[in-house]
Design brief:
two-stranded antiparallel ribbon; globular; single chain
Length: 212
Amino acid sequence: MDAASGRVLYGKNETEILPMASTTKIMTCILALEHGKMEELATVSSYAASMPKVHLGVKEGEQYVLKDLLYSLMLESHNDSAVVIAEHIGGSVEDFAELMNRKAKEIGCENTNFVTPNGLDGVSHDGKMHTTTAEDLAKIMSYCIMDSTQKDMFLEITQTRNYGFSEQNGKRHFQCRNHNTLLDMMPDAISGKTGYTSKAGYCYVGALENDG
């Protein structure tokens, strides 16, 4: 897809509805950037702390700077960080999912239904699965890097190779490494997000820029 015009140049099964694993997190990230303030403190709930690997290993009651959680989210793809962010921004995972679906519709996604902020399998109260299409994912990534008021910060986070931070009390320190290896394999790569679950398989959404 040409991100500037939205024109689809080539597609293969691009409207097939499928689970998308952690590529979900690009939507979680952009909503946090648009609705939150980077220096805000987010508190960990017991639900967030219960998330399966891949996770940061947050503990109930701990507090983290929102900006740090976004690096954890996008570089290491931590599932618990996604829930801490969702609960902080939306009040609950369910309310945050509503925000995600509203934004998807604004962007023009026809076949997307968000249930979880991290891409783990989920079913909404009306029985819909956590799914999207390749075409809709391209639209979401295009929005993040071209149209969002927070596009510069989105690119800054997703281009960072390594990032370190501590929880608010400074008792535990964390290092994050970017798993989007395409950034160092293709000189034109400017952003991207990997994903994997057994149901979704291997997923990737990325962006390239060459000569403008």
